[in-house]
Amino acid sequence: MIDQDVLVIGAGLAGMRAALAAAENGSSVAVITKVYPVRSHSNAAQGGINAALTDRGDKWEDHAYDTVKGSDYLGDQDAISVMCEEAGQEVINMEHYGTIFSRDDSGHLGVRAFGGQRQARTFFVADFTGQALLHVLHEQVLKHKVKVYEEWFVLSLVMEDGECCGVTAMDMRTGEIHTFRAKAVILASGGLGRVFEPSTNALICTGDGMAQAYRAGGSLMDMEMVQYHPTTLKSNGALMSEAARGEGGYLLNSEGERFMKKYAPNMMELASRDVVSRAEQTEINEGRGVNGCVFLDCRHLGEKVINERLVTIREAGIDFAGADMVYEPVPIRPGMHYIMGGIQTTVDGVTNVPGLYAAGETACVSVHGGNRLGANSLLDTLVFGKRSGLHAAEYSKKTTAKNIGDSSAKDEKVRIQALLDRTDGNEAFGKIRLEMGQTMNEHLAVYRDQQGMEKAREKIKELQGRYQNVIVQDKGKTFNTNLIFTLELGFMLDCAEAIVASALERKESRGAHTRKDMPKRDDENWLKHVVVTRTEGGPSISYKPVVITQWEPQERKY
Amino acid sequence: MEVTLNVKRYDPDSSKPAAYYQEYTVEVNDTTILLDSLIQVREQIDETLTLRCSCRAAICGSCAMRVNGHAVLACKTKVMELLPKSGNTITIEPAGNMPVIKDLVVEFNVFWDKVKAVKPWLQPQGPPPQAEYIASNEAMQHLVGVTGCIMCGACVSDCTVLEVDKNFLGPAALAKAYRFVADPRDDADSVRLGELNEYGGIWDCTRCMQCVEVCPKGVDPMGRIMALRDKAMQYGYQNTYGARHATAFTELIKHGGTLDELRLPIKTYGMFNIKQMVKLIPIGIRSQLKGKRPPIFHKAIPGVENVRRIFKKVENKR
Ligand SMILES: Cc1cc2nc3c(=O)[nH]c(=O)nc-3n(C[C@H](O)[C@H](O)[C@H](O)COP(=O)(O)OP(=O)(O)OC[C@H]3O[C@@H](n4cnc5c(N)ncnc54)[C@H](O)[C@@H]3O)c2cc1C
Ligand code: SF4
Ligand code: SF4
Ligand code: FES
Prior knowledge:
The structure holds two protein chains of two kinds.
Chain A: E1 2-9, H1 13-24, E2 29-33, E3 49-50, H2 60-70, H3 77-97, E4 111-112, E5 122-123, H4 129-143, E6 147-150, E7 152-160, E8 163-171, E9 177-187, H5 208-215, E10 220-221, E11 226-232, H6 243-246, E12 250-252, H7 260-263, H8 273-285, E13 294-297, H9 302-309, H10 311-321, E14 330-339, E15 342-344, E16 356-358, E17 363-364, H11 377-398, H12 407-421, H13 429-443, E18 447-448, H14 450-467, H15 481-505, E19 514-515, H16 523-526, E20 528-535, E21 538-545
Parallel strand pairs in A: 1-2, 1-9, 2-6, 9-16, 15-17, 18-19
Antiparallel strand pairs in A: 3-5, 4-5, 7-8, 8-9, 10-15, 10-20, 11-14, 12-13, 13-14, 20-21
Chain B: E1 2-9, E2 20-27, H1 34-45, E3 64-67, E4 70-73, H2 79-82, E5 89-93, E6 100-102, E7 105-106, H3 109-117, H4 137-147, H5 154-158, H6 160-164, H7 170-181, H8 189-196, H9 210-214, H10 221-234, H11 241-256, H12 263-269, H13 274-289, H14 304-317
Parallel strand pairs in B: 1-5
Antiparallel strand pairs in B: 1-2, 3-4, 3-5, 6-7
Helix pairs in contact in B: 3-7, 7-8, 7-10, 11-12, 11-14
Bound molecules: flavin-adenine dinucleotide, iron/sulfur cluster (2 copies) and FE2/S2 (inorganic) cluster.
């Protein structure tokens, strides 16, 4: 058994920021991650990170208001205020750690414009901001000699008397399963993009943390809020960053028209993502697309700007769509990108399960509500990563470790051996995953309705049943990815269940949850969060009121 | 069209572990990416095929492997581009210079240990300012190229020196070191360069260009190593064997306009430092085997006058 004060699951931005905060607070802290830290999905963030720096005349309240409006008034305003107030300090802190943010002519940090905001306040490193931040945090983790269990796969939370007191995890190198005991566990295990097919997300984004919390009695909130990004490539779902529009790129339909003028006459291409994605989908559905796509046109920006600021996405366009944005418009369409929902937490990462914290995409504070603004997610990971690290460190000082023994690891060994030994089955993980992904992408996409979502619910139930018959071909101990994928699929099916249950519950249209059969936002009845927990009879729903401090809900116009 | 992927496999859990090759046939078109074909094999043909991959977008650095003898990033490479002139078989092997764990998965700790050895974190002097450090955009833009490194290990896989000398820090770690030396906010240049000046550091690169060729992100590790050499000399690291190497190098270039790698070791170590000379032999032999050996007789390249002039200019400047 391995013993820690604070145990962080995940080495993305949220996880490493939490670990550093706890370490700087003097706690014994370790990180477990299923991939090497710099392989975490945070590296995919291209565009940037938002912050209102007061020394240059921006106000955090303005950033907060844009975030509230972007969330379609479902974001909790107290939490949003915390995030926006602390944003400047976090960005400066990352700069001090070594991030090479782009500069302006005076040598200060430079900004670019991003969607849904009236002011340019997105700080960036060319078009690989996430990678730059992730590598810098990793450098700091190395500097502080934080113990990282690399390529270890967390299987489950260890619960005792309703409290979380550790995890079980498999060393992928050897296949050995161990119990980790901790006074506080922070889940920072990222998003669940692979529940959908296609998705902009990496193959490791399988919602493990959300499912582990859900299975252990944790509450998931806002799970119906799934963001479709306006500019993804058709071939493999790869993302063309919002930076392309931030730098001035246009969206055109098959008639060569900048169609956003019909939907968001003021903000045009930089309206919030749900608005732009719906506009695109409407154009496509009404026959003004080409092969299910509209176009991103950056030609007028010129090769120099594109090479300096958009080089990665230029490459992606060439590699995956065969279109060089310097010379031609790139066909794009809305694609699954981000989950606004997650494990319900306070602004300190505290969940409803004592001893359990969550931060980053796997958590839901809720600062994104019905729709996340571009470049607010990196900010979310850092601010709330740090806060949960600090809170968990303090909590662990006041807590004594539970006497838990090694039975959890033994149980997991038995469960996994049984899975490997199974002979009476005829299902393969790849097939079930594909069916799940396609179902979700068909019925829980930009436009939804009752009938489609009910179909999805039945399908997910069916797949959960068939999952019991999956055969794992690889029986080995060493680096058995076949087994890992099968376990991840189990997590994903639980996430899908929670998403569908929550979406069926919300009987209105708000943010990313747009119902063709109920197209209006209904503040009277639905200005509240949908919370889902698991019971023996399936998902069980409750509500949490939205916190409103100073911004009364208004009709959203961009 | 149909393409055969001939994959080198190794299963440590089998009763008699030994490497072998297995062929898989996949259907591809002009735009099919190699990683997608491998994933197709893994999901539809043989679930036991093991490789690392995640982002599918050349950003996470998981999927470096050797294809037809050279390191590539599987998610950034089209299958059609890999096809040999005749036949339709592609040979896929794990990345080199790191021990194999299983199939295409290699022991990466070897890689990280080298990166850790260059103390890869910003070391400014004194407490940070209230707001950001002031730095020119030019200086930051200059670092964009090298921080683009995704730590995929393709360069390490194919580095000719690492093949014979495990002590060499290698292209990725040295590129990372450069990232800090070239950062105006970092104040540890002198100490860093002193350490890089030691055995295993910047002077052990033979400038074979392999790392530059295989790097999927245009990081140019060799160029960074050369820049570090310049810096080390500027900082007065003159008397070690490495700097002598460079002094010899400078002379040779001035003389012939290009580098005579055969003469270089002799100049560096002295004709009679037999021990060091012997150590270098394997590099020579290996390079010859791979057809990378420099021509034995160097002629002055056309334009050598220019090269000499550039050297004069730089010398006068100092
Ligand atoms: C293509 C793309 C572009 C984006 N661009 C932007 C942008 O410009 N600005 C912005 O603000 N946001 C952006 N986002 C969103 C943002 O990148 C993510 O939301 C954020 O980085 C998530 O960080 P995280 O730390 O929560 O999780 P991740 O970085 O995903 O890290 C998750 C960690 O958990 C570990 N883990 C997961 N499961 C297990 C397990 N079972 N056992 C052990 N370890 C486990 C993983 O190994 C990993 O280390 C983008 C997202 C995508 C997909
Ligand atoms: S140029 Fe130097 S670092 Fe690069 S592969 Fe050759 S020997 Fe290795
Ligand atoms: S320098 Fe290039 S090849 Fe080497 S690890 Fe970095 S990205 Fe990979
Ligand atoms: S899968 Fe991430 S670099 Fe290839």
